[in-house]
Amino acid sequence: MYRFLLDNLAHNSYRNDTGRTMLDMNAAFLNRDLNRVRQILASILADLPSHTYQKQTEGSGAAFGYHGLIHVMFSYLGMFIQSEVHSSQGRADAVVETAGDVFLFEFKFNQTATDALAQLRTNGCGDKYRASGKTLTAIGVNFNSAERSVDDWITEPF
What we know:
By secondary structure, the chain is α+β, with helices and mostly antiparallel strands. Helix content is about 35%, strand content about 25%.
């Protein structure tokens, strides 16, 4: 299902000018425009019909559902993404690498992006990338079940 959904999103710019295609997201990543990545992600989630959501808690897989969708979207873009990336002290939910950047993501469900960033720092998730010479950016994301979208997003240098 994700494959067909993403294929449709990747090619929908000829039908309308929503500014939320996968190609737009790819350009935003490559331009380090993380606010635009957030806007496009929020727009994609807002476009999903309400009846496709089920009442879920983090333990029942809701956070994994969002995390899985993001992994598939970024992977479909041809971005190098890894999920559940372990370090010596913990793990990051996702890591996206471009030629000059490493973006470390931590996803929360009905919590805060600040909590997500704190977890990335506590677990030293970016330490193994320091010798790469790439710019490291931590991204804390919170998914809100009531809004069914991203309600909190913080980026900062790692």
